Amino acid sequence: QGARTAADALNPDYVRSIFGTDISPALSERKDYIASRLARFRERIVPSKYLQGVIRDAFSLPSTIIPHGVAPLHAPVTRYRGDNFKFGVVGGLLPQKGWRTVIEPFLELRSEFPGISLTFYGGGEELPKRVPEGIAFRGR
User: Fold this and answer.
1) Measured distance between the N- and C-terminal CA atoms of the chain, rounded to whole angstroms
2) What phi and psi values does residue 135 have, to the nearest 5 degrees?
3) Can you give the pLDDT of all 140 residues of the chain as single tens digits?
4) pTM value?
5) Contact (CB, 8 A) for 92 and 120
């Protein structure tokens, strides 16, 4: 998290800043193990140019991009009665995943529909000290 390159992620100073101690030998061993497993596959499919670069730079392996996502559904907008609609976020609560960016628009929507709720499922960075009403964190 926060390393600009795969090599940076194995730098002992960086590793100490993240883990509090230098576990770079174990991380290097893990990287080599993952590389040996990835090399066994005829194809490696990734969803983005970014991840393609990570696989290339970290493991010196080629990969093919097949973007994830689903084409937009062009269906009529459905209006729901009541305000007990539930929203959820599943995944790592890390800055690069953007989980915090969901909170502000949710709170704006909640001011209009006070019965809605938002639940986060996943571990990661430290949670806010004060959790706004209507939001819950359920952990991993």
Assistant:
1) 18
2) -115, 135
3) 778 888 899 999 999 988 889 999 999 999 999 999 999 988 899 988 988 998 999 999 999 998 877 677 677 766 666 667 888 888 888 888 888 889 999 999 999 889 999 999 988 878 888 888 999 999 87
4) 0.51
5) no
